[in-house]
Amino acid sequence: MMDKYDCIVIGAGPAGLSATLTLGRARRKVALFDNGTNRNRVTHESHGFLTRDGIKPKEFKDIAVKQLESYPSVSISNETVIKVIKDVQRDLFLVNTSNNKSYITEKILLATGIQEEFPLLQIRQYYGKSLFSCPYCDGWELRDKPLAIIAENDEHIIHMTKLVFNWSKDLIVFTNGHQLSNKVRNDFESKKIKVYTEVIKNLHGDNGNLESIELESGENILRSGGFVVPSFYRPNKFAEHLNCQVDENGGIITDSAGRTTVIGIYIAGETEKAGPSSLMIAAADGNKAASSINMDITLDRF
Ligand SMILES: Cc1cc2nc3c(=O)[nH]c(=O)nc-3n(C[C@H](O)[C@H](O)[C@H](O)COP(=O)(O)OP(=O)(O)OC[C@H]3O[C@@H](n4cnc5c(N)ncnc54)[C@H](O)[C@@H]3O)c2cc1C
Predict the structure, then answer these.
(1) Its quaternary structure (predicted)?
(2) Of 27, 158, 260, 287, which has the fewest beta carbons less than 10 angstroms from its beta carbon?
């Protein structure tokens, strides 16, 4: 008979790590799985996490993992979870990993995060080094620089441009073929923000540092960094396969304390938000979901 866990946490980003810490401290038997695909792995520094401003993402995770080692009921494995199956009769979950191992658990926390898709493949080379998607995370480092805003619809263009204008007044908007309304163009021009609606042909730079953006016409516009608006998506469908209800936008429905519509399944972090957030928010979500998990186990067993 396999060991039964109180909770299996899938994903050791800030959401999963923080949940595991809370559960370990609550004396729960927890297994945490991670496969190293955290969204911020491409960046050198993380900003805005209280007391850890400027920390490297790897160092952030290493400290969290080290601190979890103090809790004997917690185990951490570098494994990809490939399937979660509900055992309805026993009210348990079976978790399968890519190493052909299986685990059983009473509760599941999905903290697997999201990923981004870019309008242009070349953006990947610069993402996390000189092109970013979150001004709160990286706006300070790019302040007053000649920046590009790369976005492809009115709503995203307006939102990102107005926001980034706070950090740098030297902005050029690239819509990659999207035609912007005259009203918006006039608003931007009144602030001396140029707009290029031509399709982008290429990005140029060195070692992730953007130097210029080349348009289809061959015109090359100098920029030393900027912000892009990617599309975000949830790469795995564990929640759907386990029959958790989702809303019309594909977001998993929760009670705002991390409980999904299926008893025993919880979510935290960007998986829950169905969009980008921050290390601090994800960690807080993990803490909140862990309290729900612990309370539910407590009430079941008391
Ligand atoms: C370039 C960049 C820079 C950023 N800079 C900042 C910053 O300065 N400050 C800030 O606050 N935020 C920053 N962020 C945002 C921050 O990284 C996210 O908000 C945060 O990581 C979300 O936490 P999470 O725990 O929800 O997801 P993640 O951190 O993405 O963690 C999810 C984890 O799940 C694991 N996983 C996924 N699927 C599986 C599976 N099937 N099996 C096992 N494990 C799995 C992954 O390996 C990953 O570690 C940045 C993001 C990017 C992309």
Answers:
(1) Homodimer.
(2) 27
> What residues does ligand 1 touch, defined as CB less than 6 Å away?
10-16, 33-40, 42-43, 46-49, 80-81, 111-113, 127-128, 132, 134, 137, 236, 269-270, 276-280, 282
Ligand 1 binding pocket mutation candidate from 9, 34, 97, 141 (most atoms within 8 A of CB): 34
Number of other CB atoms surrounding residue 88 within 10 Å: 7
Question: pLDDT by residue (tens digit) across 127-181?
Answer: 999 999 999 999 999 999 999 999 999 999 999 999 999 999 999 999 999 999 9
Last residue in a domain, options 205, 228, 251: 228
- Tens digits of per-residue pLDDT, 239-270? 999 999 999 988 999 998 999 999 999 999 99
Verify that 109 and 239 share a domain, yes or no. Answer: yes
Pairing of the two strands 147-150 and 171-174: parallel
Residues 79 and 9 placed together within one structural domain of the fold? yes
- Each residue of 16-49: pLDDT tens digit? 999 999 999 999 999 999 999 999 999 999 999 9
Sequential DSSP letters for 194-240? EEE-SPEEEEEEETTEEEEEEETTS-EEE-SEEEE--EEE-S--HHH
Structural domain harbouring 90: 4-114+234-301
